[in-house]
Each structure stands twice: as structure tokens, then as C-alpha cells.
TrEMBL record:
<comment type="function">
    <text>Condenses 4-methyl-5-(beta-hydroxyethyl)thiazole monophosphate (THZ-P) and 2-methyl-4-amino-5-hydroxymethyl pyrimidine pyrophosphate (HMP-PP) to form thiamine monophosphate (TMP).</text>
</comment>
<feature type="binding site">
    <location>
        <position position="77"/>
    </location>
    <ligand>
        <name>4-amino-2-methyl-5-(diphosphooxymethyl)pyrimidine</name>
    </ligand>
</feature>
<dbReference type="GO" id="GO:0004789">
    <property type="term" value="F:thiamine-phosphate diphosphorylase activity"/>
</dbReference>
<comment type="pathway">
    <text>Cofactor biosynthesis; thiamine diphosphate biosynthesis; thiamine phosphate from 4-amino-2-methyl-5-diphosphomethylpyrimidine and 4-methyl-5-(2-phosphoethyl)-thiazole: step 1/1.</text>
</comment>
<keyword id="KW-0479">Metal-binding</keyword>
<dbReference type="InterPro" id="IPR034291">
    <property type="entry name" value="TMP_synthase"/>
</dbReference>
<keyword id="KW-0460">Magnesium</keyword>
<feature type="binding site">
    <location>
        <position position="173"/>
    </location>
    <ligand>
        <name>2-[(2R,5Z)-2-carboxy-4-methylthiazol-5(2H)-ylidene]ethyl phosphate</name>
    </ligand>
</feature>
<keyword id="KW-0808">Transferase</keyword>
<feature type="binding site">
    <location>
        <position position="78"/>
    </location>
    <ligand>
        <name>Mg(2+)</name>
    </ligand>
</feature>
<comment type="similarity">
    <text>Belongs to the thiamine-phosphate synthase family.</text>
</comment>
<protein>
    <recommendedName>
        <fullName>Thiamine-phosphate synthase</fullName>
        <ecNumber>2.5.1.3</ecNumber>
    </recommendedName>
</protein>
<dbReference type="InterPro" id="IPR036206">
    <property type="entry name" value="ThiamineP_synth_sf"/>
</dbReference>
<feature type="binding site">
    <location>
        <begin position="41"/>
        <end position="45"/>
    </location>
    <ligand>
        <name>4-amino-2-methyl-5-(diphosphooxymethyl)pyrimidine</name>
    </ligand>
</feature>
<feature type="binding site">
    <location>
        <begin position="193"/>
        <end position="194"/>
    </location>
    <ligand>
        <name>2-[(2R,5Z)-2-carboxy-4-methylthiazol-5(2H)-ylidene]ethyl phosphate</name>
    </ligand>
</feature>
<dbReference type="Pfam" id="PF02581">
    <property type="entry name" value="TMP-TENI"/>
</dbReference>
<feature type="domain" description="Thiamine phosphate synthase/TenI">
    <location>
        <begin position="12"/>
        <end position="196"/>
    </location>
</feature>
Length: 215
């Protein structure tokens, strides 16, 4: 599944690690799938996350199995070795991670996502072979300690206006209340952590987001 095929999976892209979840992450993922998420990223990172690589790998494998039973592609954040080891469907890297251009040959057809904060970075991601980009933070977020300043939908609009043709999701502080503005700006979907993971009812939260996106 390359660029065109990925678009439909970007509609409601759920990201989580155990640190984002007030209850068991496996239960939350199952409920999020019930609610209609279209892609999942395992991001075990930051305050409260698991420490040992064994624990992280075991959790990744359990979450991958849940995604496989529902045909939801499973992306690993940052860790190329883990993605390759467990046979993930893709890897997401940021500007301070392994360089997309360096890993493209190693990941052998896996989905490659890249975080960008400008049209310039989007252009480079496209040239490096990224299948999609994550653009953020759109709104202020509490889920990423080192997040940059929120820029609203300006960067998404800039990328569209520059004619850079790559599937993209907005990320950062996205809720059912503001998701429509992200899609209206030109994103193919939204990527969320807390709107689903910290909801008392993750399935209902995912359903509400989906309804807004499908509009
Ligand atoms: C879909 C998506 N977009 C952006 C990011 C952020 O990646 P990065 O800037 O590398 O920050 P960390 O998530 O690694 O803290 C993402 N993970 N997913
Ligand atoms: C993982 C991540 N990356 C961002 C970026 O701007 O690149 S913002 C972010 C956190 C998104 O979490 P929430 O939906 O809870 O705001
Ligand atoms: Mg990263």
C-alpha cells in the first residue's frame, strides 16, 4: 500500500502508548477500533511509559495482534528496529529521528510516515519517499512534552498551496469540535491521542470524530 492506498487509512489515525491511557491500552485500542479508527501508531514514549525494551516489544506485539484481527495497519513510532523485528506495517519518523532518506531502502515497502512543520520539510519528505506526512501541532497539546508552538491550520494550507502532493494528517490538540477545520484546510484526516485514549468512552469518542471527518 503506497501513497494513494494510504489515504483512506488516514481518516482517523489513532496514536497511543501506555502512558496515554488511564486504563488498559489493549482495551482502549479494541474500543477505538470498534468506534472506527482507520490506522494505529504505537508510540511508547514520555512520562509514564514502559522502560525495558522487552516490555515495550511484548506490548507492541499484543497491540499488533489486535490490529491484525481488524485489518487496521500498525505503525511503530521512532523505532525502526522494533518495526522490522515485529513485522509492523509501517514506521513514523520525525525531523530528529532516523532520516527518511536513510531508512527507505531498509524498510522494504513498509509504510513510511514523516512529521513536518513547514512546506519545505513536506517537499523533502516527498522526495525522500514518505507515504504520508503528519503536520502539527495544529492546536496546543499536552500529549507531547517537546511539541512545537501550535500554528493552527496554516502549515496544512501552505503545503496545499505549494502543490506538494502527498497524503497528510493534522496532529495536535484535535477534537471532535475542531477536526472539521483540519480537513477543510486540506488534510486527508486527523491524528489523535488524548481525544480517544483519555475519553471515558473511546468507542464513542472515535465515532464522534469519524462522523465529523466523514461529514
Ligand atoms: C502522525 C504523526 N505525526 C507526527 C508525529 C510526531 O513525530 P515526532 O515529531 O518524531 O515526535 P514523537 O512522536 O516521536 O515524539 C507522530 N508521532 N505521528
Ligand atoms: C505525537 C504528537 N506529535 C505532534 C506534532 O506536532 O508533531 S503533536 C503530538 C501529540 C498529539 O496528541 P493529542 O492528540 O493528545 O494532542
Ligand atoms: Mg519521533
Amino acid at each position: 500500500m503506497k501513497r494513494e492506498g494510504i489515504k483512506k487509512h488516514l481518516a482517523l489515525y489513532f496514536i497511543a502508548g501506555s502512558q496515554d491511557c488511564p486504563k488498559n491500552i489493549e482495551e482502549i485500542l479494541i474500543e477505538a477500533i470498534e468506534g472506527g479508527i482507520t490506522l494505529f501508531q504505537f508510540r511508547e514514549k514520555g512520562k509514564g511509559s514502559l522502560h525495558t525494551s522487552d516490555e515495550i516489544e511484548q506490548l507492541a506485539v499484543r497491540l499488533l495482534q489486535i490490529c491484525r484481527t481488524s485489518n487496521i495497519p500498525f505503525i511503530v513510532n521512532d523505532d525502526v528496529e522494533l518495526a522490522l523485528k515485529i513485522g509492523a506495517d509501517g514506521i513514523h519518523v520525525g525531523q530528529d529521528d532516523a532520516k527518511a532518506g536513510d531508512i527507505i531502502t531498509r524498510i522494504n515497502g513498509m509504510i513510511l510516515g514523516v512529521s513536518v512543520h513547514s512546506a519545505e520539510e513536506a517537499k523533502r519528505a516527498l522526495a525522500d519517499g514518505a507515504d504520508y506526512i503528519g503536520v502539527g501541532p495544529v492546536f496546543p497539546t499536552s500529549s507531547k512534552e517537546d511539541a512545537k508552538e501550535a500554528r493552527g491550520t496554516a502549515v496544512i494550507e501552505e503545503i496545499k498551496q505549494a502543490g506538494i502532493d502527498i497524503p497528510m494528517v493534522g496532529i495536535g490538540g484535535i477534537t471532535a469540535e475542531n477536526a472539521k477545520s483540519v480537513v477543510m484546510a486540506g488534510a486527508d484526516g486527523v491524528s489523535v491521542i488524548s481525544s480517544i485514549s483519555r475519553s471515558e468512552h473511546p468507542a464513542a469518542a472515535a465515532r464522534a470524530l469519524k462522523k465529523v471527518i466523514n461529514g
